[in-house]
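This part of the workshop introduces the protein records we will be handling. The question running through the whole workshop is how a given chain folds. To make this concrete, we reproduce a full record directly below:
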Amino acid sequence: MHAALVFLDESGFSLVSPLKRTWAPRGQTPRVRTSLSHWERVSLLGAVQVTPDGQRVKLHTHTYYKRNLTGLEVIAFLEQLLREISGPIVLAWDNHPTHRRKLVQAFLADHPRLHVYAFPRYAPELNPAEYIWTQLSEHTAGTAPHHTSELRANVRAGVAKIRRSQRRLWACIWASELPWKR
């Protein structure tokens, strides 16, 4: 049985959305509203999965509101992946401190279906999951939500847009600097 290849990463989005270029009538400077609560955030775990036959790419995500990620959230996401993906899983991720927690390492030792490999330090360009966040940032750019509920809705809509498109998901794979055959 072939293994599913899964690339995992984490990211966060705050009420201060990224800005990008826009247009406005001459002499009318565009204004972007912002929130006073810059500390409110949405944290996400995301995984790009290439099916064992190499024909499809899937996106798995889990969202956490108003808190940073810990080893417990990583374990909950890994349990989700184990439920959603049958057979062996080759998991590649970065060296984030939550991945190295004793609790996470003990979980990995107890689940032989997970074969885990770490990308080299400071090499985000190798991880296809990093490009999920690039696309999601593009989707949320310039939205400047006032409340966490607006931010959650923007993030949910962006994730749904990425999840529905094989073209967008394959773009994450091809954008990485991994040697990948097309």
Observations:
- Residues 4-14+37-175 form a domain with the Nucleotidyltransferase; domain 5 fold (CATH 3.30.420.10).
- The radius of gyration is 18 Å.
- The mean pLDDT is 87.
